[in-house]
Amino acid sequence: MIRTAQDSASKLASVTALLTVAVLTASSVVAGEPVHRDATHTQTASLKTVGQPSHRNPSVSPEWFERQLPDADLARFVAERYSEHHRLQRADMLAIFAMVVESGTVDDEQLETLRRIVDNAGRLGMATNVADLAHKVVFGDPANAHFQGEPLGNLNDAPSAETLDKLVKKWFLGQDLPKIPAKYHYVKAAGKLFDGPAKLTDLHQGELGDCYFIATLGEVALRDPQQISRIFIDNHDGTVTVRFMNKNKPYYVTVDRQLPVDSTGRFVYENRGDLPNNPKNILWVTLAEKALAQLNESGWLKTAGKSGENSLTEIGAGGRSQLAVSLVTGQATNRDDLKSIGSFAKGELEIANSKKEVPNFLVPHHSYVVVDYNADRGEVTLFNPWGLHGNKKDIKYGQFTMSWTDFWADFQNIDHAQHHLAAGGGAAKKIADNLPTPKAEANPVGAIAAAQ
């Protein structure tokens, strides 16, 4: 049963914060709705799949809660919250967790009640993102080992109001900030998630070596901006829930607007050099980058950095865009030789990876967005995820075009999605099934035309 709350100022503050978030969420748009919508009916309809209840069953009666939930006080409270919308929304789960935290403990009946609520997420109409986050809180996740750099653990291992409070803050409120070097610090960023549809020009990779991820976001934004919109859910309380894919299953993390800056007060990672108080900041790329760092703590993300650590530095140690494409879209991906660029015209996502030894205008071992391939002219158009500008005078920033011969000489492979997107952009022309291997002295236009 729910017991009287302990007279603790810190506990009261935690409960007040959770209830405030629940009220703010409930008073805004429905939690779990997509954050960005195009004006067209088609896009709006397709985006409604984001965060929708996995199953909605208005027939769940008050008696069901009495029979199924061991803690009588919690059962009545959950039944009341459910009756308002015939489903449990994010605000409802925050209120339920806050009620348990306020009791000062998590006893066996309370813990079993929380488990049964999550086990019946479909019956109770929870949105998929809410159900996933609640599952991590109640049943556990490898990332629960730490919170804000200190040991924590799963609720099942050491049930307590303090543990529950921290797990809710971690998964629902995005307060487990990724580790950053001591010379940087976090500040709250102004700005908006999107400025219209996601754009390739929103990219501005900073100090981290995560081109594999930033370039992937750019390629998806170029080819199918709706796909980017579906990744983000605005919770309307200063946090955003970000969806990744793991073996074709959605996996969610929540981030707040706290972002790293240097001693001059400017962003150091994505959006590098920009001021955090600028209301014109576009934040979707940098929040996705932060979410990836938090995701890394769950242990299944494979990058060049140390897995299992909530750290921006670790995801910035390098990785494969082949993994990132699958992580962002859920689509199966391959790493093939450069001739696979022929699939670009069929709507595939493609990321081109440069060699170790490259001309001064290219970045070595760097992932580039494939923007276009024109077989008639023998040209490949790329976009550098470093963005439109930077301080390296010889480097080509933004979008640029290379001859096929130069592309063959300076790039080593292409990571591409096996399944085509429903919507394509920047289609190449007259792609040959078997592109030739250029020779140093060959005319790339003539060589490719001869192969058609």
Write the layout of secondary structure elements.
Layout: H1 9-27, H2 41-47, H3 62-68, H4 72-85, H5 90-103, H6 108-119, H7 128-138, E1 146-147, E2 150-151, H8 161-171, E3 185-188, H9 211-223, H10 225-229, E4 232-234, E5 239-246, E6 249-256, E7 258-261, H11 284-295, H12 312-315, H13 321-329, E8 333-336, E9 350-354, E10 367-374, E11 379-384, E12 398-403, H14 404-410, E13 411-417, H15 444-451
Antiparallel strand pairs: 1-2, 3-7, 4-5, 5-6, 8-13, 9-10, 9-13, 10-11, 11-12
Helix pairs in contact: 1-5, 3-4, 4-5, 5-8, 6-7, 7-8, 9-13
Q: How would you explain this protein's 3D organization?
A:
This protein is of the alpha+beta class and 452 residues long. It has 3 domains: 9-171, no CATH class; 185-323, no CATH class; 332-451, Cysteine proteinases (Cathepsin B, Chain A), CATH 3.90.70. It is 34% helix and 15% strand. The chain has 15 helices and 13 strands. The protein has a 6-stranded antiparallel β-sheet. It has a 3-stranded antiparallel β-sheet with strand order 4-5-6. The longest helix has 19 residues, at 9-27. It is elongated. The N and C termini lie far apart (76 Å). The relative contact order is 0.10. Residues 1-9, 27-50 and 421-452 have low confidence and may be disordered.
